[in-house]
Structure to design on (640 residues):
Protein backbone atom coordinates (compact mmCIF):
# COMPACT_ATOMS: atom_id res chain seq x y z
CA UNK A 1 0.00 0.00 0.00
CA UNK A 2 2.98 2.23 -0.77
CA UNK A 3 0.89 4.70 -2.76
CA UNK A 4 -1.77 5.17 -0.10
CA UNK A 5 -4.11 3.21 -2.35
CA UNK A 6 -5.04 -0.38 -1.47
CA UNK A 7 -4.96 -2.41 -4.67
CA UNK A 8 -7.02 -5.60 -4.94
CA UNK A 9 -6.18 -7.79 -7.92
CA UNK A 10 -8.95 -9.86 -9.44
CA UNK A 11 -8.66 -12.56 -12.08
CA UNK A 12 -11.27 -11.45 -14.62
CA UNK A 13 -11.02 -14.77 -16.47
CA UNK A 14 -11.58 -17.11 -13.50
CA UNK A 15 -14.84 -18.95 -12.82
CA UNK A 16 -17.56 -20.65 -14.77
CA UNK A 17 -19.22 -17.37 -15.77
CA UNK A 18 -16.09 -15.30 -16.43
CA UNK A 19 -15.44 -12.68 -17.55
CA UNK A 20 -19.08 -11.52 -17.45
CA UNK A 21 -19.78 -12.38 -13.80
CA UNK A 22 -16.39 -11.10 -12.65
CA UNK A 23 -16.72 -7.68 -14.26
CA UNK A 24 -20.28 -7.30 -12.98
CA UNK A 25 -19.18 -8.37 -9.51
CA UNK A 26 -16.28 -5.94 -9.61
CA UNK A 27 -18.66 -3.12 -10.54
CA UNK A 28 -20.84 -4.03 -7.56
CA UNK A 29 -17.79 -4.10 -5.30
CA UNK A 30 -16.62 -0.68 -6.48
CA UNK A 31 -19.84 0.80 -5.16
CA UNK A 32 -19.17 -0.64 -1.71
CA UNK A 33 -15.47 0.01 -1.38
CA UNK A 34 -14.00 3.16 0.14
CA UNK A 35 -12.13 5.65 -2.06
CA UNK A 36 -8.69 4.43 -1.09
CA UNK A 37 -9.25 1.05 -2.78
CA UNK A 38 -8.62 0.30 -6.43
CA UNK A 39 -9.59 -2.94 -8.15
CA UNK A 40 -7.09 -4.25 -10.67
CA UNK A 41 -8.58 -6.66 -13.20
CA UNK A 42 -6.33 -9.13 -15.01
CA UNK A 43 -7.67 -10.45 -18.29
CA UNK A 44 -8.99 -9.80 -21.78
CA UNK A 45 -9.07 -6.01 -21.91
CA UNK A 46 -11.51 -5.68 -24.81
CA UNK A 47 -13.97 -8.10 -23.24
CA UNK A 48 -13.75 -6.36 -19.87
CA UNK A 49 -14.34 -2.93 -21.42
CA UNK A 50 -17.26 -4.22 -23.45
CA UNK A 51 -19.02 -5.77 -20.44
CA UNK A 52 -18.50 -2.62 -18.40
CA UNK A 53 -19.69 -0.44 -21.24
CA UNK A 54 -22.86 -2.48 -21.68
CA UNK A 55 -23.56 -1.81 -18.00
CA UNK A 56 -23.20 1.90 -18.68
CA UNK A 57 -20.08 1.95 -16.53
CA UNK A 58 -16.88 3.71 -17.47
CA UNK A 59 -14.06 1.26 -17.30
CA UNK A 60 -11.84 3.76 -15.48
CA UNK A 61 -13.59 2.55 -12.35
CA UNK A 62 -10.82 -0.03 -12.19
CA UNK A 63 -7.36 -0.68 -13.58
CA UNK A 64 -6.98 -3.33 -16.26
CA UNK A 65 -3.84 -5.37 -16.81
CA UNK A 66 -4.29 -6.99 -20.22
CA UNK A 67 -3.43 -10.66 -20.52
CA UNK A 68 -3.82 -13.01 -23.45
CA UNK A 69 -4.06 -16.49 -21.94
CA UNK A 70 -6.46 -18.28 -19.61
CA UNK A 71 -5.78 -21.14 -17.21
CA UNK A 72 -8.88 -23.30 -17.42
CA UNK A 73 -10.38 -25.83 -15.01
CA UNK A 74 -8.83 -28.63 -17.06
CA UNK A 75 -5.27 -27.27 -16.96
CA UNK A 76 -2.90 -29.14 -14.68
CA UNK A 77 -2.29 -26.82 -11.71
CA UNK A 78 1.44 -27.45 -11.43
CA UNK A 79 2.13 -27.03 -15.14
CA UNK A 80 -0.29 -24.23 -15.91
CA UNK A 81 1.99 -21.35 -14.93
CA UNK A 82 4.94 -22.34 -17.10
CA UNK A 83 2.70 -23.28 -20.01
CA UNK A 84 0.65 -20.09 -19.88
CA UNK A 85 2.94 -17.30 -18.68
CA UNK A 86 0.65 -14.57 -19.99
CA UNK A 87 -2.48 -15.96 -18.33
CA UNK A 88 -4.48 -13.76 -15.98
CA UNK A 89 -3.46 -15.99 -13.06
CA UNK A 90 0.25 -15.98 -13.88
CA UNK A 91 0.39 -12.23 -14.37
CA UNK A 92 -1.76 -11.62 -11.31
CA UNK A 93 0.52 -13.66 -9.07
CA UNK A 94 3.48 -11.81 -10.61
CA UNK A 95 1.94 -8.51 -9.53
CA UNK A 96 1.21 -9.91 -6.08
CA UNK A 97 4.77 -11.13 -5.61
CA UNK A 98 6.15 -7.78 -6.78
CA UNK A 99 3.93 -5.94 -4.30
CA UNK A 100 2.07 -4.10 -7.07
CA UNK A 101 -1.21 -5.33 -5.62
CA UNK A 102 -2.09 -5.96 -1.95
CA UNK A 103 -4.27 -9.01 -2.47
CA UNK A 104 -5.37 -11.32 -5.27
CA UNK A 105 -8.65 -13.16 -5.79
CA UNK A 106 -9.88 -15.62 -8.39
CA UNK A 107 -12.82 -17.94 -8.88
CA UNK A 108 -10.74 -19.96 -11.34
CA UNK A 109 -8.81 -23.22 -11.10
CA UNK A 110 -8.42 -23.83 -7.34
CA UNK A 111 -5.40 -26.05 -7.72
CA UNK A 112 -3.65 -23.40 -9.80
CA UNK A 113 -4.50 -20.76 -7.19
CA UNK A 114 -2.86 -22.88 -4.52
CA UNK A 115 0.18 -23.62 -6.66
CA UNK A 116 0.41 -19.92 -7.46
CA UNK A 117 0.25 -19.03 -3.79
CA UNK A 118 2.95 -21.49 -2.80
CA UNK A 119 5.34 -20.81 -5.66
CA UNK A 120 4.99 -17.06 -6.13
CA UNK A 121 4.33 -15.38 -2.78
CA UNK A 122 5.32 -18.58 -0.90
CA UNK A 123 4.62 -19.79 2.61
CA UNK A 124 5.62 -17.48 5.46
CA UNK A 125 8.83 -18.73 7.04
CA UNK A 126 7.90 -20.83 10.06
CA UNK A 127 4.54 -21.92 8.68
CA UNK A 128 4.66 -25.71 8.32
CA UNK A 129 1.67 -25.95 5.96
CA UNK A 130 -0.36 -23.09 4.56
CA UNK A 131 -4.05 -23.86 4.72
CA UNK A 132 -7.39 -22.98 3.20
CA UNK A 133 -10.26 -22.04 5.42
CA UNK A 134 -13.88 -21.10 5.18
CA UNK A 135 -16.15 -18.61 6.85
CA UNK A 136 -19.17 -20.48 8.13
CA UNK A 137 -22.39 -19.03 9.50
CA UNK A 138 -23.39 -19.82 13.08
CA UNK A 139 -26.96 -19.91 14.24
CA UNK A 140 -26.25 -17.70 17.24
CA UNK A 141 -25.41 -14.98 14.72
CA UNK A 142 -22.18 -14.04 12.99
CA UNK A 143 -19.42 -16.09 11.48
CA UNK A 144 -16.98 -18.76 12.55
CA UNK A 145 -13.88 -20.05 10.78
CA UNK A 146 -13.36 -23.68 9.74
CA UNK A 147 -9.92 -24.87 8.71
CA UNK A 148 -8.40 -26.78 6.88
CA UNK A 149 -11.13 -27.28 4.27
CA UNK A 150 -9.30 -29.44 1.79
CA UNK A 151 -5.63 -28.65 1.30
CA UNK A 152 -3.81 -30.92 3.76
CA UNK A 153 -5.68 -34.15 4.16
CA UNK A 154 -3.35 -35.97 6.55
CA UNK A 155 -2.33 -33.45 9.21
CA UNK A 156 0.34 -33.95 11.82
CA UNK A 157 -0.55 -32.67 15.31
CA UNK A 158 1.81 -29.70 15.09
CA UNK A 159 0.10 -28.61 11.89
CA UNK A 160 -3.29 -28.70 13.60
CA UNK A 161 -1.85 -26.62 16.43
CA UNK A 162 -0.60 -24.04 13.94
CA UNK A 163 -4.04 -23.95 12.31
CA UNK A 164 -5.42 -23.02 15.70
CA UNK A 165 -3.03 -20.13 15.90
CA UNK A 166 -3.51 -18.93 12.30
CA UNK A 167 -7.26 -19.23 12.64
CA UNK A 168 -7.28 -17.33 15.91
CA UNK A 169 -5.41 -14.37 14.44
CA UNK A 170 -7.61 -14.38 11.33
CA UNK A 171 -10.80 -14.51 13.41
CA UNK A 172 -9.58 -11.61 15.51
CA UNK A 173 -8.16 -9.38 12.76
CA UNK A 174 -10.52 -10.11 9.87
CA UNK A 175 -13.73 -11.34 11.49
CA UNK A 176 -13.39 -8.94 14.41
CA UNK A 177 -13.88 -11.54 17.14
CA UNK A 178 -12.00 -10.63 20.34
CA UNK A 179 -10.12 -13.54 21.95
CA UNK A 180 -11.54 -16.17 19.59
CA UNK A 181 -12.46 -19.53 21.09
CA UNK A 182 -10.43 -22.17 19.24
CA UNK A 183 -11.65 -25.77 19.26
CA UNK A 184 -10.52 -29.08 17.83
CA UNK A 185 -13.16 -30.94 15.84
CA UNK A 186 -13.53 -34.39 17.34
CA UNK A 187 -15.95 -37.21 18.09
CA UNK A 188 -16.39 -36.40 21.76
CA UNK A 189 -15.75 -33.54 24.11
CA UNK A 190 -13.49 -35.42 26.49
CA UNK A 191 -9.74 -35.03 26.07
CA UNK A 192 -9.12 -38.73 25.52
CA UNK A 193 -11.57 -39.00 22.61
CA UNK A 194 -10.56 -39.07 18.97
CA UNK A 195 -8.23 -40.60 16.46
CA UNK A 196 -4.45 -40.73 16.78
CA UNK A 197 -3.98 -37.28 15.25
CA UNK A 198 -6.55 -35.43 17.35
CA UNK A 199 -5.47 -37.06 20.59
CA UNK A 200 -1.92 -35.91 19.98
CA UNK A 201 -3.04 -32.48 18.76
CA UNK A 202 -5.10 -31.94 21.90
CA UNK A 203 -1.98 -32.40 24.02
CA UNK A 204 -0.19 -29.64 22.11
CA UNK A 205 -3.16 -27.31 21.73
CA UNK A 206 -4.27 -27.32 25.35
CA UNK A 207 -0.92 -25.93 26.42
CA UNK A 208 -0.65 -23.28 23.71
CA UNK A 209 -0.04 -19.76 24.99
CA UNK A 210 -0.85 -18.42 21.52
CA UNK A 211 -4.61 -18.80 21.49
CA UNK A 212 -7.65 -19.50 23.60
CA UNK A 213 -8.13 -23.26 23.29
CA UNK A 214 -11.55 -24.38 24.49
CA UNK A 215 -11.14 -28.12 23.89
CA UNK A 216 -12.89 -30.57 21.60
CA UNK A 217 -16.13 -29.88 19.79
CA UNK A 218 -18.35 -32.42 18.05
CA UNK A 219 -20.05 -32.22 14.67
CA UNK A 220 -23.19 -30.91 16.34
CA UNK A 221 -21.37 -27.82 17.64
CA UNK A 222 -19.85 -26.58 14.38
CA UNK A 223 -22.76 -24.37 13.34
CA UNK A 224 -24.15 -23.33 16.72
CA UNK A 225 -21.55 -20.68 17.56
CA UNK A 226 -22.09 -21.49 21.21
CA UNK A 227 -18.78 -23.20 21.79
CA UNK A 228 -16.19 -22.08 19.27
CA UNK A 229 -15.24 -19.34 16.81
CA UNK A 230 -12.42 -21.26 15.14
CA UNK A 231 -12.83 -24.96 14.39
CA UNK A 232 -9.67 -26.88 13.55
CA UNK A 233 -9.57 -30.15 11.63
CA UNK A 234 -7.59 -31.80 8.86
CA UNK A 235 -8.45 -30.99 5.27
CA UNK A 236 -10.19 -34.31 4.69
CA UNK A 237 -12.72 -33.80 7.46
CA UNK A 238 -13.10 -30.06 6.83
CA UNK A 239 -13.81 -30.54 3.15
CA UNK A 240 -16.54 -33.07 3.89
CA UNK A 241 -18.07 -30.85 6.61
CA UNK A 242 -18.13 -27.85 4.27
CA UNK A 243 -19.61 -29.69 1.31
CA UNK A 244 -22.19 -31.36 3.52
CA UNK A 245 -23.21 -27.93 4.81
CA UNK A 246 -23.47 -26.56 1.28
CA UNK A 247 -25.68 -29.48 0.32
CA UNK A 248 -27.98 -28.75 3.26
CA UNK A 249 -28.57 -25.31 1.76
CA UNK A 250 -29.29 -26.82 -1.64
CA UNK A 251 -31.61 -29.41 -0.07
CA UNK A 252 -33.53 -26.72 1.82
CA UNK A 253 -34.02 -24.84 -1.47
CA UNK A 254 -35.08 -28.02 -3.23
CA UNK A 255 -37.62 -28.80 -0.51
CA UNK A 256 -39.02 -25.30 -0.76
CA UNK A 257 -38.03 -24.50 2.82
CA UNK A 258 -37.68 -20.77 3.53
CA UNK A 259 -34.02 -19.79 3.60
CA UNK A 260 -34.53 -16.08 4.23
CA UNK A 261 -32.87 -16.06 7.62
CA UNK A 262 -29.33 -14.90 8.37
CA UNK A 263 -28.07 -18.41 9.04
CA UNK A 264 -29.23 -19.91 5.76
CA UNK A 265 -28.19 -16.81 3.84
CA UNK A 266 -24.73 -17.43 5.29
CA UNK A 267 -24.87 -21.03 4.06
CA UNK A 268 -25.25 -19.76 0.50
CA UNK A 269 -21.81 -19.83 -1.09
CA UNK A 270 -22.56 -16.54 -2.83
CA UNK A 271 -22.45 -14.81 0.54
CA UNK A 272 -19.39 -16.61 1.83
CA UNK A 273 -17.12 -14.69 -0.52
CA UNK A 274 -14.25 -17.09 -0.89
CA UNK A 275 -11.68 -19.28 0.74
CA UNK A 276 -8.77 -17.39 2.23
CA UNK A 277 -5.37 -19.04 1.82
CA UNK A 278 -3.69 -18.64 5.22
CA UNK A 279 0.01 -18.81 5.94
CA UNK A 280 1.39 -17.34 2.70
CA UNK A 281 3.17 -14.00 2.29
CA UNK A 282 0.20 -12.10 0.93
CA UNK A 283 -3.56 -12.07 0.76
CA UNK A 284 -5.04 -14.68 -1.57
CA UNK A 285 -8.72 -15.60 -1.89
CA UNK A 286 -10.06 -18.55 -3.86
CA UNK A 287 -13.62 -18.02 -5.06
CA UNK A 288 -16.24 -20.63 -5.83
CA UNK A 289 -16.06 -21.95 -9.39
CA UNK A 290 -19.68 -21.16 -10.10
CA UNK A 291 -19.42 -17.61 -8.75
CA UNK A 292 -22.18 -15.21 -9.68
CA UNK A 293 -21.61 -11.43 -9.67
CA UNK A 294 -22.81 -11.37 -6.04
CA UNK A 295 -20.29 -14.06 -5.09
CA UNK A 296 -17.52 -12.17 -6.91
CA UNK A 297 -18.46 -8.96 -5.14
CA UNK A 298 -18.22 -10.70 -1.76
CA UNK A 299 -14.93 -12.36 -2.72
CA UNK A 300 -13.49 -8.92 -3.51
CA UNK A 301 -14.84 -7.32 -0.33
CA UNK A 302 -13.41 -10.14 1.75
CA UNK A 303 -10.01 -9.81 0.07
CA UNK A 304 -10.03 -6.07 0.72
CA UNK A 305 -10.97 -6.56 4.38
CA UNK A 306 -8.18 -9.11 4.84
CA UNK A 307 -5.60 -6.91 3.08
CA UNK A 308 -6.57 -3.95 5.23
CA UNK A 309 -6.55 -5.96 8.47
CA UNK A 310 -2.81 -6.45 8.59
CA UNK A 311 -3.37 -10.18 9.10
CA UNK A 312 -0.33 -11.27 7.09
CA UNK A 313 2.07 -8.79 8.64
CA UNK A 314 0.95 -9.82 12.11
CA UNK A 315 1.66 -13.48 11.35
CA UNK A 316 5.07 -12.56 9.99
CA UNK A 317 5.90 -10.37 12.98
CA UNK A 318 4.96 -13.11 15.42
CA UNK A 319 7.10 -15.67 13.59
CA UNK A 320 10.09 -13.35 13.09
CA UNK B 1 -36.54 -68.41 16.16
CA UNK B 2 -36.71 -72.04 17.14
CA UNK B 3 -40.18 -71.69 18.61
CA UNK B 4 -41.68 -70.01 15.58
CA UNK B 5 -41.81 -66.82 17.62
CA UNK B 6 -39.32 -64.04 16.92
CA UNK B 7 -38.17 -62.65 20.25
CA UNK B 8 -36.84 -59.09 20.47
CA UNK B 9 -35.07 -58.22 23.70
CA UNK B 10 -35.25 -54.65 24.94
CA UNK B 11 -33.35 -53.08 27.81
CA UNK B 12 -36.15 -51.43 29.78
CA UNK B 13 -33.64 -49.52 31.93
CA UNK B 14 -31.59 -47.93 29.10
CA UNK B 15 -31.89 -44.29 28.08
CA UNK B 16 -32.42 -40.92 29.70
CA UNK B 17 -36.15 -41.45 30.14
CA UNK B 18 -36.12 -45.14 31.10
CA UNK B 19 -38.02 -47.13 32.11
CA UNK B 20 -41.05 -44.90 31.34
CA UNK B 21 -40.17 -44.12 27.69
CA UNK B 22 -39.06 -47.70 27.00
CA UNK B 23 -42.25 -49.32 28.25
CA UNK B 24 -44.41 -46.79 26.39
CA UNK B 25 -42.34 -47.32 23.23
CA UNK B 26 -42.65 -51.08 23.61
CA UNK B 27 -46.43 -50.77 23.91
CA UNK B 28 -46.47 -48.71 20.70
CA UNK B 29 -44.29 -51.31 18.99
CA UNK B 30 -46.56 -54.17 20.04
CA UNK B 31 -49.39 -52.56 18.09
CA UNK B 32 -47.28 -52.54 14.94
CA UNK B 33 -45.63 -55.92 15.16
CA UNK B 34 -47.06 -59.08 13.63
CA UNK B 35 -48.33 -61.86 15.87
CA UNK B 36 -45.22 -63.98 15.55
CA UNK B 37 -43.11 -61.42 17.43
CA UNK B 38 -42.73 -61.18 21.18
CA UNK B 39 -40.97 -58.34 22.98
CA UNK B 40 -38.88 -59.36 25.98
CA UNK B 41 -38.21 -56.53 28.43
CA UNK B 42 -35.22 -56.73 30.78
CA UNK B 43 -35.45 -54.61 33.91
CA UNK B 44 -37.32 -53.67 37.06
CA UNK B 45 -40.42 -55.85 36.86
CA UNK B 46 -42.55 -53.85 39.31
CA UNK B 47 -41.77 -50.56 37.55
CA UNK B 48 -42.50 -52.05 34.13
CA UNK B 49 -45.84 -53.47 35.29
CA UNK B 50 -46.83 -50.21 36.94
CA UNK B 51 -46.11 -48.12 33.80
CA UNK B 52 -48.00 -50.58 31.61
CA UNK B 53 -50.89 -50.69 34.04
CA UNK B 54 -51.17 -46.88 34.12
CA UNK B 55 -51.51 -47.02 30.36
CA UNK B 56 -54.36 -49.45 30.77
CA UNK B 57 -52.26 -52.16 29.14
CA UNK B 58 -51.99 -55.68 30.42
CA UNK B 59 -48.36 -56.51 30.93
CA UNK B 60 -48.81 -59.91 29.30
CA UNK B 61 -48.34 -58.03 26.02
CA UNK B 62 -44.64 -58.74 26.52
CA UNK B 63 -42.36 -61.02 28.50
CA UNK B 64 -40.45 -59.55 31.42
CA UNK B 65 -37.09 -60.83 32.63
CA UNK B 66 -36.59 -59.21 36.03
CA UNK B 67 -33.19 -57.71 36.76
CA UNK B 68 -32.00 -55.78 39.81
CA UNK B 69 -29.11 -53.62 38.56
CA UNK B 70 -28.69 -50.84 36.01
CA UNK B 71 -25.62 -49.88 34.00
CA UNK B 72 -25.71 -46.08 33.89
CA UNK B 73 -24.14 -43.58 31.50
CA UNK B 74 -21.33 -43.01 33.99
CA UNK B 75 -20.37 -46.68 34.33
CA UNK B 76 -17.14 -47.66 32.62
CA UNK B 77 -18.16 -49.77 29.61
CA UNK B 78 -15.47 -52.41 29.98
CA UNK B 79 -16.00 -52.91 33.73
CA UNK B 80 -19.77 -52.55 33.86
CA UNK B 81 -20.60 -56.17 33.03
CA UNK B 82 -18.45 -57.78 35.69
CA UNK B 83 -19.47 -55.19 38.29
CA UNK B 84 -23.18 -55.45 37.55
CA UNK B 85 -23.91 -59.04 36.50
CA UNK B 86 -27.63 -58.69 37.21
CA UNK B 87 -28.04 -55.50 35.20
CA UNK B 88 -30.60 -55.38 32.40
CA UNK B 89 -27.75 -55.11 29.87
CA UNK B 90 -25.75 -58.03 31.27
CA UNK B 91 -28.75 -60.33 31.46
CA UNK B 92 -29.99 -59.19 28.04
CA UNK B 93 -26.70 -60.02 26.39
CA UNK B 94 -26.70 -63.35 28.22
CA UNK B 95 -30.07 -64.18 26.65
CA UNK B 96 -28.82 -63.03 23.26
CA UNK B 97 -25.71 -65.20 23.48
CA UNK B 98 -27.81 -68.20 24.56
CA UNK B 99 -30.16 -67.70 21.61
CA UNK B 100 -33.15 -67.08 23.89
CA UNK B 101 -33.82 -63.83 22.03
CA UNK B 102 -33.24 -63.06 18.34
CA UNK B 103 -32.10 -59.46 18.76
CA UNK B 104 -31.35 -56.99 21.53
CA UNK B 105 -31.84 -53.24 21.66
CA UNK B 106 -31.01 -50.59 24.24
CA UNK B 107 -30.90 -46.80 24.44
CA UNK B 108 -28.49 -47.07 27.36
CA UNK B 109 -24.72 -46.70 27.69
CA UNK B 110 -23.40 -46.97 24.10
CA UNK B 111 -19.95 -48.05 25.14
CA UNK B 112 -21.39 -50.85 27.26
CA UNK B 113 -23.59 -51.94 24.34
CA UNK B 114 -20.51 -52.24 22.14
CA UNK B 115 -18.51 -54.06 24.80
CA UNK B 116 -21.47 -56.36 25.32
CA UNK B 117 -21.69 -57.04 21.59
CA UNK B 118 -18.00 -57.84 21.27
CA UNK B 119 -17.64 -59.94 24.41
CA UNK B 120 -20.92 -61.81 24.51
CA UNK B 121 -22.11 -62.56 20.98
CA UNK B 122 -18.67 -61.63 19.56
CA UNK B 123 -17.55 -60.64 16.08
CA UNK B 124 -18.36 -63.03 13.26
CA UNK B 125 -15.26 -65.00 12.32
CA UNK B 126 -13.63 -63.24 9.39
CA UNK B 127 -14.90 -59.79 10.31
CA UNK B 128 -11.85 -57.61 11.01
CA UNK B 129 -13.76 -54.90 12.85
CA UNK B 130 -17.45 -54.85 13.66
CA UNK B 131 -18.93 -51.44 12.98
CA UNK B 132 -21.81 -49.17 13.88
CA UNK B 133 -23.84 -47.58 11.15
CA UNK B 134 -26.73 -45.22 10.74
CA UNK B 135 -29.76 -45.02 8.52
CA UNK B 136 -29.80 -41.58 6.92
CA UNK B 137 -32.60 -39.97 4.93
CA UNK B 138 -31.94 -38.99 1.34
CA UNK B 139 -33.74 -36.17 -0.38
CA UNK B 140 -34.61 -38.28 -3.41
CA UNK B 141 -36.72 -40.37 -1.00
CA UNK B 142 -35.89 -43.38 1.12
CA UNK B 143 -32.93 -44.26 3.23
CA UNK B 144 -29.19 -44.72 2.79
CA UNK B 145 -26.66 -46.30 5.14
CA UNK B 146 -23.62 -44.49 6.55
CA UNK B 147 -20.84 -46.46 8.22
CA UNK B 148 -18.76 -46.39 10.41
CA UNK B 149 -20.34 -43.70 12.59
CA UNK B 150 -17.95 -43.68 15.50
CA UNK B 151 -16.56 -47.05 16.50
CA UNK B 152 -13.29 -47.38 14.56
CA UNK B 153 -11.71 -43.98 14.15
CA UNK B 154 -8.53 -44.97 12.32
CA UNK B 155 -9.53 -47.51 9.68
CA UNK B 156 -7.18 -49.55 7.57
CA UNK B 157 -8.15 -49.87 3.89
CA UNK B 158 -9.20 -53.52 4.22
CA UNK B 159 -11.58 -52.53 6.99
CA UNK B 160 -13.20 -49.89 4.78
CA UNK B 161 -13.57 -52.51 2.06
CA UNK B 162 -15.31 -54.83 4.50
CA UNK B 163 -17.62 -52.01 5.54
CA UNK B 164 -18.61 -51.72 1.91
CA UNK B 165 -19.53 -55.36 1.84
CA UNK B 166 -21.34 -55.40 5.20
CA UNK B 167 -23.20 -52.24 4.28
CA UNK B 168 -24.20 -53.61 0.92
CA UNK B 169 -25.74 -56.74 2.40
CA UNK B 170 -27.50 -54.74 5.11
CA UNK B 171 -28.90 -52.28 2.56
CA UNK B 172 -30.19 -55.12 0.45
CA UNK B 173 -31.59 -57.36 3.19
CA UNK B 174 -32.85 -54.80 5.71
CA UNK B 175 -33.45 -51.62 3.72
CA UNK B 176 -34.70 -53.55 0.71
CA UNK B 177 -32.46 -51.84 -1.84
CA UNK B 178 -31.59 -54.14 -4.76
CA UNK B 179 -27.91 -54.08 -5.80
CA UNK B 180 -27.00 -51.19 -3.48
CA UNK B 181 -24.59 -48.59 -4.82
CA UNK B 182 -21.61 -48.50 -2.45
CA UNK B 183 -19.42 -45.39 -2.37
CA UNK B 184 -16.35 -44.23 -0.51
CA UNK B 185 -16.71 -40.83 1.19
CA UNK B 186 -13.90 -38.62 -0.06
CA UNK B 187 -12.91 -35.07 -0.95
CA UNK B 188 -13.22 -35.49 -4.70
CA UNK B 189 -14.76 -37.90 -7.13
CA UNK B 190 -11.56 -38.79 -8.96
CA UNK B 191 -9.80 -41.99 -7.98
CA UNK B 192 -6.56 -40.26 -7.05
CA UNK B 193 -8.22 -37.91 -4.55
CA UNK B 194 -8.17 -38.37 -0.81
CA UNK B 195 -6.01 -39.14 2.18
CA UNK B 196 -3.70 -42.12 2.48
CA UNK B 197 -6.45 -44.41 3.78
CA UNK B 198 -9.07 -43.61 1.14
CA UNK B 199 -6.60 -43.78 -1.74
CA UNK B 200 -5.58 -47.26 -0.66
CA UNK B 201 -9.17 -48.28 0.07
CA UNK B 202 -10.28 -47.22 -3.40
CA UNK B 203 -7.77 -49.62 -4.93
CA UNK B 204 -9.26 -52.52 -3.01
CA UNK B 205 -12.90 -51.50 -3.32
CA UNK B 206 -12.94 -50.89 -7.05
CA UNK B 207 -11.96 -54.50 -7.67
CA UNK B 208 -14.36 -56.04 -5.19
CA UNK B 209 -16.63 -58.72 -6.64
CA UNK B 210 -18.74 -58.59 -3.47
CA UNK B 211 -20.60 -55.33 -4.01
CA UNK B 212 -21.45 -52.65 -6.51
CA UNK B 213 -18.75 -50.03 -5.96
CA UNK B 214 -19.64 -46.71 -7.61
CA UNK B 215 -16.49 -44.79 -6.64
CA UNK B 216 -15.91 -41.75 -4.46
CA UNK B 217 -18.61 -39.40 -3.26
CA UNK B 218 -18.14 -35.99 -1.70
CA UNK B 219 -19.83 -34.45 1.33
CA UNK B 220 -22.41 -32.85 -0.91
CA UNK B 221 -23.61 -36.25 -2.16
CA UNK B 222 -24.28 -37.93 1.19
CA UNK B 223 -27.89 -36.83 1.55
CA UNK B 224 -28.98 -36.62 -2.07
CA UNK B 225 -29.47 -40.33 -2.71
CA UNK B 226 -28.55 -39.71 -6.33
CA UNK B 227 -25.17 -41.40 -6.21
CA UNK B 228 -24.99 -43.92 -3.41
CA UNK B 229 -27.04 -46.12 -1.08
CA UNK B 230 -24.15 -47.11 1.19
CA UNK B 231 -21.54 -44.54 2.17
CA UNK B 232 -18.32 -45.86 3.66
CA UNK B 233 -15.95 -43.85 5.84
CA UNK B 234 -13.93 -44.23 9.02
CA UNK B 235 -15.66 -43.72 12.35
CA UNK B 236 -14.10 -40.32 12.92
CA UNK B 237 -15.51 -38.82 9.74
CA UNK B 238 -18.82 -40.67 9.99
CA UNK B 239 -19.45 -39.53 13.54
CA UNK B 240 -18.87 -35.90 12.57
CA UNK B 241 -21.09 -36.21 9.48
CA UNK B 242 -23.90 -37.75 11.52
CA UNK B 243 -23.77 -35.22 14.35
CA UNK B 244 -23.55 -32.34 11.88
CA UNK B 245 -26.68 -33.66 10.17
CA UNK B 246 -28.49 -33.98 13.49
CA UNK B 247 -27.58 -30.39 14.31
CA UNK B 248 -29.03 -29.22 10.99
CA UNK B 249 -32.34 -30.66 12.07
CA UNK B 250 -32.11 -28.90 15.44
CA UNK B 251 -31.11 -25.65 13.72
CA UNK B 252 -34.06 -25.86 11.34
CA UNK B 253 -36.38 -26.30 14.33
CA UNK B 254 -34.74 -23.42 16.16
CA UNK B 255 -35.12 -21.15 13.13
CA UNK B 256 -38.78 -22.08 12.85
CA UNK B 257 -38.27 -23.67 9.44
CA UNK B 258 -40.94 -26.19 8.49
CA UNK B 259 -39.62 -29.72 8.93
CA UNK B 260 -42.78 -31.55 7.94
CA UNK B 261 -41.28 -33.16 4.86
CA UNK B 262 -40.07 -36.76 4.60
CA UNK B 263 -36.41 -35.73 4.43
CA UNK B 264 -36.40 -33.66 7.59
CA UNK B 265 -38.60 -36.18 9.39
CA UNK B 266 -35.89 -38.70 8.57
CA UNK B 267 -33.28 -36.36 10.05
CA UNK B 268 -35.09 -36.52 13.39
CA UNK B 269 -33.31 -39.11 15.52
CA UNK B 270 -36.68 -40.30 16.82
CA UNK B 271 -37.46 -41.68 13.39
CA UNK B 272 -34.05 -43.19 12.75
CA UNK B 273 -34.66 -45.92 15.28
CA UNK B 274 -31.14 -46.80 16.27
CA UNK B 275 -27.64 -47.69 15.28
CA UNK B 276 -27.24 -51.28 14.13
CA UNK B 277 -24.04 -53.00 15.20
CA UNK B 278 -22.84 -54.86 12.11
CA UNK B 279 -20.43 -57.78 12.00
CA UNK B 280 -21.37 -59.49 15.28
CA UNK B 281 -23.08 -62.87 15.69
CA UNK B 282 -26.52 -61.50 16.40
CA UNK B 283 -28.75 -58.48 15.94
CA UNK B 284 -27.89 -55.57 18.23
CA UNK B 285 -29.30 -52.05 18.02
CA UNK B 286 -28.03 -49.07 19.99
CA UNK B 287 -30.69 -46.43 20.56
CA UNK B 288 -30.23 -42.71 21.12
CA UNK B 289 -29.62 -41.77 24.76
CA UNK B 290 -32.48 -39.29 24.81
CA UNK B 291 -34.93 -41.71 23.22
CA UNK B 292 -38.62 -40.85 23.49
CA UNK B 293 -41.31 -43.54 23.26
CA UNK B 294 -41.46 -42.90 19.51
CA UNK B 295 -37.71 -43.42 19.19
CA UNK B 296 -37.93 -46.62 21.27
CA UNK B 297 -40.76 -47.89 19.10
CA UNK B 298 -38.68 -47.35 15.97
CA UNK B 299 -35.61 -48.91 17.58
CA UNK B 300 -37.67 -52.04 18.30
CA UNK B 301 -39.23 -52.17 14.84
CA UNK B 302 -35.80 -51.81 13.23
CA UNK B 303 -34.39 -54.59 15.41
CA UNK B 304 -37.29 -56.85 14.46
CA UNK B 305 -36.85 -56.09 10.75
CA UNK B 306 -33.13 -56.88 10.96
CA UNK B 307 -33.69 -60.09 12.92
CA UNK B 308 -36.28 -61.23 10.39
CA UNK B 309 -34.12 -60.31 7.38
CA UNK B 310 -31.54 -63.03 7.91
CA UNK B 311 -28.79 -60.43 7.62
CA UNK B 312 -26.52 -62.05 10.18
CA UNK B 313 -26.88 -65.57 8.83
CA UNK B 314 -26.13 -64.33 5.31
CA UNK B 315 -22.91 -62.67 6.50
CA UNK B 316 -21.91 -65.85 8.30
CA UNK B 317 -22.70 -68.03 5.30
CA UNK B 318 -20.65 -65.86 2.99
CA UNK B 319 -17.66 -65.94 5.34
CA UNK B 320 -17.90 -69.64 6.12
Amino acid sequence: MATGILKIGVDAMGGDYAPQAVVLGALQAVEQLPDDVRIVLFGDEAAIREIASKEGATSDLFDIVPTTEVITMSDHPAQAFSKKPDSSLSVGFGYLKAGKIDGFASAGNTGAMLVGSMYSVKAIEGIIRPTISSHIPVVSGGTALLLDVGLNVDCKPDVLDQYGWLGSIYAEKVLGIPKPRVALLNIGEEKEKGNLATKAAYEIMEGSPRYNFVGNVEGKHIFTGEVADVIVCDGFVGNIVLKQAESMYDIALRLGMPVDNPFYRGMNYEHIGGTPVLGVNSVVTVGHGRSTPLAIRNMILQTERTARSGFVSQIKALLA
